[in-house]
Write a structure and sequence with these properties.
The complex is a heterodimer of chains A (about 260) and B (about 270). Chain A is an alpha/beta fold and about 260 residues long. Chain A has one domain (about 5-190, about 235-250): Glutaconate Coenzyme A-transferase (3-Layer(aba) Sandwich). Helix content of chain A is about 25%, strand content about 25%. Chain A has seven helices and 14 strands. The radius of gyration of chain A is 18 Å and the shape is globular. The termini of chain A are far apart. Chain B contains nine helices and 15 strands. In chain B, helix 2 links the parallel strand 2 and strand 3 (about 45-50). Chain B is an alpha/beta fold and about 270 residues long. Chain B folds into two domains: about 5-100 and about 155-265, Glutaconate Coenzyme A-transferase (3-Layer(aba) Sandwich); about 105-155, no CATH class. In chain B, helix 3 packs across helix 4 and helix 8 (about 240-250) packs across helix 9. Chains A and B meet through helix 3, helix 4, helix 5 and helix 7 of A and helix 4, helix 5 and helix 8 of B.
Chain lengths: ~260, ~270
């Protein structure tokens, strides 16, 4: 039996499935946080979630609006200072996965959250790097989740806030003490992975009912497809129920606060 | 020993035009009451430093207090842009704003180095990022022991640190609980410090490893109830997420922002 679900739900469920209970995940706010908590509430109850505000092993009942909502601290095993978070826990090598969102991503999975246009005269000024530049290099690997569109998926990002594999795909070569970088990008249309040699992103799986043309149309470069292209498994009824409950709880919580 | 002052007096005495000011609190315990007092006293040409400028700096920038901003993530968390910050950067309103941006890791290290009395912080950071191309305060050095290439940034050593905390005892010792962010580091890194607190109590009730700033490490303490609202103070009140969302509409337009400022800051005295 086929279930009704949106492309956003498909994205969140697929992103959640990338996490397992044995991972220690440094979670970005927004889509990554939604996916990480969905994982924790479904197939990965023991996944360790860490937010840059210093909350270690947190289990929020509702999704935080900010990276430092009280919910994160109150449901955490413990809360450490921000320098300790970045120095001991992230730089010290305790994070297996950094889970990031972005405003722009390019073919080498470089991320731009700084600005659109020229740095000194930006067309659109975005928030900036935050924790991402070091999460991307100090975590053992990086998962990225972002909605697929031509505005977001550009051939070359306007600004490399956070490195994927650099402008030429070689930025991590011969660098000591650096993680593997992005290993998967999950969108509302498909799953992409870097080619093992060139590091260029390749579509490895299309979500159900999504066509190659839709992906080509939503990507700002000549996107490559894997020889054996898979179809992403549909969300289960349980995953959809948990995700919808989580979002309903979250919306009610944030709207009710005065 | 910390001196107990009114917020008005603390800001008037310890923050001068042209100062470098760090108002910290990582999402939690953001010193809004102090920010509003700085706006009311029309402090100008401040260099503002904060990891996440948040609404407090959006308001101060829009009110014309700042000439320079050093930061690492300048958005309205979970909502979108800081429109006053963007207007200043993109259009120079109400005045041109110079910006210098880092990553969180670098700023956290820079505060810690400031507290440690060091001139610089060293981190494994900025690899492959364009940020060093636009921020000349990011350099790379070679580890003298291993040869590893590491990033270096100058420590943060501001004129004034401003933070909010849950409570102080009558001697001026301060307890910070919950997300402690970077507050201890910024106070120790600064020449002078102002700490606003929810309340002054007889006994802090601190556990043995609690984050406590001793009175003799603080310049001034001012009581400011709900002084972190619309951010939050663990154990006192929740984050006003609805206001953070509402701010998007208020700050998007110069006129609605100025009306908000008049009604909510200028026509309200310090508590």
């Amino acid at each position: 039996m086929s279930l009704e679900y949106t492309s956003s739900e498909m994205m969140s469920v697929t992103a959640a499935r990338a996490l397992t209970s044995d991972m220690t995940c440094f979670v970005g706010i927004g889509l990554p946080s939604e996916a990480a908590n969905l994982a924790r509430l479904t197939h990965a109850p023991d996944v360790t979630l860490i937010y840059e505000s210093g909350t270690l092993q947190t289990k929020p009942d509702v999704l935080p609006l900010s990276i430092g909502d009280g919910e994160l601290c109150e449901s955490a095993l413990t809360t450490v200072a921000v320098p300790e978070m970045f120095r001991y826990w992230l730089q010290g090598g305790h994070i297996s996965v950094g889970f990031l969102g972005t405003a722009q991503i390019d073919r080498y999975a470089n991320l731009n959250t700084t600005l659109i246009g020229d740095y000194r005269e930006p067309k659109v000024r975005l928030p900036g790097g935050g924790g991402a530049p070091e999460i991307a290099t100090n975590a053992k690997e990086v998962f990225i989740t972002v909605k697929h569109s031509k505005r977001t998926f550009v051939k070359d990002v306007d600004f490399v806030t956070t490195v994927g594999f650099g402008r030429d795909g070689k930025a991590r070569d011969n660098v000591s003490n650096i993680g593997r970088g992005p290993t998967v990008v999950i969108t509302d249309l498909c799953i992409l992975k870097p080619d093992p040699d060139s590091k260029e992103l390749v579509v490895t799986s299309l979500h159900p009912d999504v066509t190659r043309d839709e992906v080509i149309e939503a990507t700002g470069w000549e996107i490559l497809f894997a020889d054996t292209l898979e179809t992403t498994p549909e969300p289960s009824a349980k995953e959809l129920e948990v995700l919808r409950d989580l979002k309903a709880r979250t919306n009610a919580h944030h709207a009710g606060q005065q | 020993m910390a001196e107990f002052l009114s917020l008005k007096e603390a800001v008037s005495r310890h923050i001068n035009n042209g100062d470098t000011v760090c108002m910290e609190g990582f999402t939690h315990l953001i010193p809004f009451a102090a920010g509003h007092e700085i706006i009311r006293q029309e402090k100008r040409d401040l260099t503002l430093i904060r990891m996440t400028p948040d609404l407090v700096y959006d308001q101060m920038i829009g009110a014309g207090c700042a000439k320079k901003l050093i930061f690492s993530w300048g958005g309205n968390p979970g909502v979108g842009s800081l429109h006053r910050l963007r207007d200043a950067v993109e259009k120079g309103w109400p005045n041109k704003l110079e910006i210098l941006e880092h990553s969180h890791a670098a700023m956290a290290c820079a505060y810690e180095a400031g507290a440690a009395g060091l001139p610089l912080a060293v981190l494994r950071g900025y690899i492959g990022s364009d940020l060093p191309k636009v921020n000349d305060q990011i350099k790379f050095i070679e580890c003298p022991f291993t040869g590893e290439r590491l990033a270096a940034v100058p420590s943060v050593r501001p004129d004034v640190a401003v933070i909010h905390a849950q409570r102080a005892d009558r001697k001026g010792n301060v307890l910070i609980e919950g997300i402690v962010g970077i507050q201890k580091e910024v106070v120790l890194a600064a020449k002078r410090s102002i700490v606003t607190v929810e309340e002054v109590v007889d006994d802090l009730g601190a556990s043995v490893n609690a984050c406590v700033l001793p009175s003799w490490a603080i310049t001034a303490i001012a009581e400011a109830r709900k002084g972190a609202s619309p951010s939050y103070a663990l154990g006192y009140y929740d984050r006003d997420n609805a206001f953070y969302k509402e701010w998007d509409g208020i700050a998007r337009d110069r006129v609605t922002f100025q009306d908000w400022l008049k009604n909510n800051v200028f026509e309200k005295g310090a508590a």
